[in-house]
Amino acid sequence: MDKKTKTNKKATWAGIIAGSIASVVSYYGVQQLFFKTDVETVLKKAATELNKQLPMNVDEYSRLDSASAEGENCFNYFYTLVDLEKSEVNLDTVNKYIRTGIIENVKNSTELREFRKNKITMNYNYFDKNGVFVTQIAVTPELYSE
Question: Which residue, of 82, 85, 111, 118, has the fewest CB within 10 Å?
Answer without folding.
Answer: 85
